[in-house]
Each structure stands twice: as structure tokens, then as C-alpha cells.
Amino acid sequence: MRTTVATARQIVVKVGTSCLAAEGSGLSVDRINTLVDVLAVRRAQPETQVTLVSSGAVAAGLAHLDIACPFDDAALMRRAAAGIGQGMLVSCYAAAFSRYSQTVGQVLLTADEVIHRADETRRVLTQLLSRDVVPVVNENDTGAARDQRFGDNDSLAAHLAILLRADVLILLSDVDALYDAPPSTPGASPVWSVHPSTQLPLSEGYASGSADTGLGTGGITSKVKAACAAAAAGIPVVLTSAKLAEGALSGDEVGTYFHPAPF
Q1: In the chain, what is the straight-line distance between the N-terminal and C-terminal CA atoms, in Å?
Q2: Which helix (H) or strand (E) holds 102?
Q3: Fewer CB within 10 A of the terminal residue: the chain, N end or C end?
Q4: In whole angstroms, what is the distance from residue 230 CA to residue 216 CA?
Q5: Beta partners for 53?
Q6: For residue 108, what are the β-bridge partners?
Q7: Cα 84 off chain centre by
Q8: How far apart are CA 36 and CA 228, in angstroms?
Q9: What NCBIfam families has UniProt attached to this entry (predicted)?
Q10: What angle do CA 253, 23, 93 make, to 5 degrees?
């Protein structure tokens, strides 16, 4: 058992669009409820706080956007879709957590707010957490200028984990672990453990998801970079699939474990 994960009290969880998207379009309420079932039970443990970084707003918005009316460019369409989808996404989470009498609070952030106004952002999140609220965090895709964006929620989650001095960061995607080749490649093997000295090639060919929706902005490269950044700051990281979230949060030997750098 990964004791540091099992006993973690300050937890940051990031979930990607591919874990939440419905097979047709939009969001899957069932998938959101299943994830919340796991998070709510973990939160119920004594002195445990969970910050959720969730993608999915663009997927939710596109399902309700009149794409027959053309946009000037794809970036503008994504921003418009995010504007529609953010409310829908947080509403789904609010309904799901309410089944456990738990309250959520939407937090939309830019890179500037996390990096250059870190103290203020930390105070806001700490206030929510101390009042037993689950922060549901996403990048402000609609309002942030291009030079104020992280570009993916993996990086945002790593920064928040460092900001909150989290005990663990859980990165959930559509694959069960990091692989030494694309998972569909014959002979591809999972990488179960990554130490600070491990050299990992940061390329999309190193490993890739098996159910890419085309709506997410982060690939395996962003996840590895985020995991390595958090681990370098002394935070253990588990990279696995949303289907294994319960085991990951319980400290089971699932997914890829990034060992924290010693201090």
C-alpha cells in the first residue's frame, strides 16, 4: 500500500474531459456521479480536504452550441463553448455532491492568478476548504487572454497542489498508467513507478490515451510534465484512469506512482 496516499489529508484531484464525456456528445451524468461517489467518501474521512480540478466545460458547451452558425476561428468557438459549459459542469457536480450533503464552489482561474497572485488564490481556496466546500476548479477559458492561460488543466492542477502544499496529486485520465509506448502497441508495458532520477521522454509517442475525445487540451506530455513538477516539489503523484480512482485514493498499487523528491 502507498501509505502517503492512503493517509493524505490535503488532496488535489484532476479529471480530464475523456473521463466525463458522454459517448455521443456532452457530459455523462453517470460518469460524474461515479467519480463523485469516490471523492465524497474520501472527503468524509477525518480532516480530509479535496480540491477538484475538472475539465469538461468545452464538451458540455459544444453539445448545446449552434455550430451551424460558423465562428471566426476554432479558439473563439472553444471560448464560447466554455462559457456555456462551465455552468452546466458545475451544476452537475453540485447535484452529484448534494447527494452526500456536500457543497461545491466554482473557481475559474488564470495563470496570472495562480502564479503571480498565488497568495490571494491560496487564501480563497483555503477559505472554501475550511468551510467544508469542495472547490471545483477550471481554467478560465472564456475570459483569459492567450498569454494568461496554462493551456491544460494538468499544469493547473500541479500548480494548485504546490500552492496548497497538498499531500498528494491524483491525475485521472482514460488510461490506467503511463506506458513505455502507446498502449495499443503490442508489447507496450506500464511504467508503475517513476523516481526523481528517472528520465522520461516527453513526447506524444511515449504513451497516449485509448479514448481520445478530441476535446481535451492536455495529452500524456502535459500529464508527465505536471506529475514531474509536483513530485519535484515534494508531492507524490498518482497517474491512472478514472475507473481506478477509488483504488488510487485508497493508496492501492494502481497507476503510475511518481515518487516525491526528498527534502
Answers
A1: 22
A2: none
A3: C
A4: 21
A5: 14, 137
A6: 138
A7: 20
A8: 26
A9: proB (TIGR01027)
A10: 65
Task: Write the burial class of residue 212 (CB in 10 Å: 0-12 exposed, 13-18 middle, 19+ buried).
Answer: middle
Check residue 213 and report its DSSP letter: -
Beta-ladder partners of 11: 50, 168
What 3-state DSSP class applies to 63? coil
Please give the pLDDT value at position 198.
Answer: 80
126/66 Cα distance (integer angstroms) = 39
The pLDDT score that the predictor gives to residue 187 is 85
Among 173, 170, 144, smallest CA distance to 157 is for 170
pTM for the model stands at 0.91
Residue among 172, 111, 128, 137 nearest 53 (CA): 137
Instruction: For residue 84, give the C-alpha cell.
Output: 456555456
Phi, psi of 169 (to 5 degrees): -120, 125
How much is the pLDDT for 221?
Answer: 85
- 236 in Cβ contact with 5 (< 8 Å): yes
Cα 162 to Cα 29, 70, 124, 221, 235: the distances in Å are: 30, 40, 15, 19, 8
Question: Which pLDDT value is given to residue 201?
Answer: 57
Amino acid at 165: R
Question: Which residues make Cβ contacts (< 8 Å) with residue 248, sequence separation at least 6?
Answer: 5, 170, 172, 238, 240, 254, 255
Kind plus residue range of the DSSP H or E element containing 148 = none
The residues that bridge with 107 in the sheet, in sequence order, are 137
Question: In Å, how far are 72, 83, 91, 143 from 146, measured between CA atoms?
Answer: 16, 16, 27, 9
Task: Enumerate residue ranges in the chain where pLDDT < 70.
Answer: 66-72, 143-149, 201-218
What's residue 65's pLDDT? 76
